[in-house]
């Protein structure tokens, strides 16, 4: 069984070179986590504070919130890249993090080689990756570029490669950051179907996004992260409505309805 449980998990970043005298006390900025001082009088960014999360198989959670709210930090905590400064975080299951497009990629080797490297990074074997190569290559539509070193790729082209690899595996826990938004509209339409498919196969999804379209497509619940804390948890449309207002909530509800009918009648996709 896959599961994610955090108990009062906090992540602080100590900043040793902050100009601490020019910090204004008790000011909450509209972007970023709370800036404070720890017991040693060092300036710290409190990126996450008292996060209590209990996720089980089938949970597809969207993370919404302002820039610097702590969404990416939460994904890194769940992936094990960060340890909680206080509190605990227990994750059971194979984690596939898709937030750092640079991780598991080598700019100097070809797209083909990077497909294998990234697969290894996500826990696959070379043999498994070779077997999937044609399918992934076709999906990315990168053609001859796949024989070129990765440094010659644009951001969106890199995302295509990363998406091709990640949608070809069977992740137990999938952590997605919104970098996937860098691909063009035509490719996104194609990737959406593959992503939705993969999300159905994965046990738990946690997805940080500023796009209500994506949230509606991939998630069934959402968390509003605000200055490092969970401000609200609930259904996607409710949380988006609380965060962005009634118009956005209504928009998400309409999308959800549309996807429901599409699911019921596959010919309409
Ligand atoms: N490596 C780091 N060192 C210091 N502070 C950091 C670090 N990474 C993140 N932070 C701080 O932690 C807070 C949360 O950042 P995070 O990247 O998690 O936000 P986010 O919700 O993903 O924002 P966005 O919507 O802009 O992607 C911010 O205040 C940020 O300044
Ligand atoms: Mg982020």
TrEMBL record:
Family annotation (Pfam families): ABC_tran
Annotated ABC transporter domain residues: 18-252
Molecular-function annotations in GO: ABC-type transporter activity; ATP binding; ATP hydrolysis activity
The keyword Transport is assigned to this record: yes
CC annotations in GO: membrane
UniProt family annotation: Belongs to the ABC transporter superfamily.
Protein name in UniProt: ABC transporter ATP-binding protein
């Amino acid at each position: 069984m896959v599961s994610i449980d955090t108990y009062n998990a906090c992540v602080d970043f100590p900043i040793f070179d902050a100009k601490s005298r020019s910090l204004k006390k008790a000011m909450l900025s509209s972007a970023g986590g709370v800036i404070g001082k720890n017991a040693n009088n060092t300036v710290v960014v409190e990126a996450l504070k008292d996060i209590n999360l209990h996720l089980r198989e089938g949970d597809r959670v969207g993370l919404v919130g302002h820039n610097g709210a702590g969404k990416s930090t939460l994904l890194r905590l769940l992936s094990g890249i960060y340890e909680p400064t206080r509190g605990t975080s227990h994750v059971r299951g194979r984690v596939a993090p898709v937030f750092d497009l640079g991780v598991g990629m080598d700019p100097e080797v070809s797209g083909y080689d990077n497909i294998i490297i990234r697969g290894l990074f996500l826990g696959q074997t070379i043999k498994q990756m070779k077997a999937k190569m044609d399918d992934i290559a076709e999906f990315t539509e990168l053609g001859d570029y796949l024989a070129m070193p990765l440094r010659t790729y644009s951001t969106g082209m890199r995302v295509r490669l990363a998406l091709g690899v990640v949608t070809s595996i069977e992740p137990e826990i999938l952590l997605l950051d919104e970098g996937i938004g860098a691909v063009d509209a035509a490719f996104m339409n194609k990737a959406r179907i593959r992503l939705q498919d993969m999300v159905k196969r994965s046990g738990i999804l946690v997805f940080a996004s500023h796009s209500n379209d994506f949230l509606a497509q991939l998630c069934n619940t959402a968390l509003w992260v605000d200055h490092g804390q969970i401000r609200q948890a609930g259904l996607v449309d409710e949380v988006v409505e609380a965060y962005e207002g009634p118009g956005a909530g209504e928009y998400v509800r309409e999308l959800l309805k549309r996807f429901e009918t599409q699911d019921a009648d596959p010919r309409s996709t």
